[in-house]
Amino acid sequence: MLQIQMAVSVAISWARQRILQCFVVFSVTFLLLWIAAFLYGSFYFSYMPKATYSTPVHYYYRTSCESPGSVMCSYPVANVSLMKNKKHVLTFGQAYRLSLHLEMPESPINQELGMFMVRATCFSQGAQIASSLSASSSHFGMLRYRSDLVRNLETLLLLPAFLTGTAEQKQVLEVELFSEYTDDPYSPSDTAMIEILSNKVQIYSSQLLVHAHFSGLRYLLFNFPLISAVVGVSSNFIFLSVLFVFSYMRQMLKLKQIPEELTVNGPPPVGEGAQRGECDGGSTDQFGRVYAQQTWPLLLE
């Protein structure tokens, strides 16, 4: 009966020990995975710039004319901020494509206007032109040609939609301002001035679109986010696991060296311990003397 009780107690102790070990391993693994994911997320959001950015463009005319008879003395001009939440939208060293989307009616004036130029200039702080080599550019735009027959057929087919207002006779024109614009870190751009070099152009609305051209590591992180996340988190987890194993082995070696030192050197003399106890108050050396007297016979056995 006693043997059965001992066997049951040993089995329970073994089960508790295994459960505790599994819990410790699971906790350490979960903690390392969480730290690895946190490190990868911090790196991703600090290294990857915003891929796209859009902002509305509102035009105005300068009316401070010298001639009193003229109302508008300038082309349509708009100042667009390249700042968001007091931070620069453009990341230093990253190439961007800037394009202007114009929503224009298919009016006779716009049809007769033909080609018109759009000029864009980037300015840094203090209304100074950015020192980048591509800080200013000019590109043309025009409505796509549609014959009278095509417009009449479209009007007949979409007449109910035109009457209810669900459809409009308009075109969305895209004008590329910069194909690869790279901001200067010493003179970052915070404002873009867009000017349409035509007084007769008619516009419903306009938007400035900024697209980032990723290359290298940023290209892989943006186009393959899942694979990059798995590789990044796995690499961090392996590195942290190796560090944890080395640290654990070092602590275990330190604990094993304590009995070996006691075995080689032997217990400290009682007289020296008493003298040290008298000098230091006796508390620390007395505890060490008692511990050595109790453990030394066990080690010798």
TrEMBL record:
<dbReference type="InterPro" id="IPR009617">
    <property type="entry name" value="Seipin"/>
</dbReference>
<dbReference type="GO" id="GO:0005789">
    <property type="term" value="C:endoplasmic reticulum membrane"/>
</dbReference>
<protein>
    <recommendedName>
        <fullName>Seipin</fullName>
    </recommendedName>
</protein>
<keyword id="KW-0472">Membrane</keyword>
<dbReference type="GO" id="GO:0140042">
    <property type="term" value="P:lipid droplet formation"/>
</dbReference>
<keyword id="KW-1133">Transmembrane helix</keyword>
<keyword id="KW-0443">Lipid metabolism</keyword>
<feature type="transmembrane region" description="Helical">
    <location>
        <begin position="20"/>
        <end position="45"/>
    </location>
</feature>
<dbReference type="Pfam" id="PF06775">
    <property type="entry name" value="Seipin"/>
</dbReference>
<feature type="transmembrane region" description="Helical">
    <location>
        <begin position="224"/>
        <end position="246"/>
    </location>
</feature>
<dbReference type="GO" id="GO:0006629">
    <property type="term" value="P:lipid metabolic process"/>
</dbReference>
<keyword id="KW-0812">Transmembrane</keyword>
<keyword id="KW-0256">Endoplasmic reticulum</keyword>
